[in-house]
Amino acid sequence: MSELIMDFYEYRTGVVFTLRWRNEEEYRQGKAFLHELLGPEGGVGVDEPGRVPSYYLENEQQFDALMDFRRTLREKQKA
Question: Three-state SS for 7?
């Protein structure tokens, strides 16, 4: 987990993208958020050591929720 990255595939648009988390706590919170948002079937390689977790976003609402979550994390760090 040294790189603190996650890969995403947005099913609706076919876009693949990677997000980098700033620290292990942010990464952990992101992983928990995604588990709640997508359920256990929403990710691949999530708990496999040495593998970058990949998540499947099925719709625009899930994408928007992820971006809002990251924005909220960043705003909390600034405060």
Answer: strand
Enclosing domain of residue 23? 5-78
Which tens digit of pLDDT belongs to each residue from 18-76? 999 999 999 999 999 999 999 988 999 888 888 899 999 999 999 999 999 999 998 98
Handedness of CA 63, 68, 69, 75 (dihedral sign): positive
Question: Residue 22 has which token pair?
Answer: 């700033």
Q: In what order do the strands lie in the sheet with 43-44?
A: 15-20, 5-10, 54-57, 43-44
Whether pTM exceeds 0.85? yes
- Residues 6 or more apart whose CB falls under 8 angstroms from that of 48 comprise none
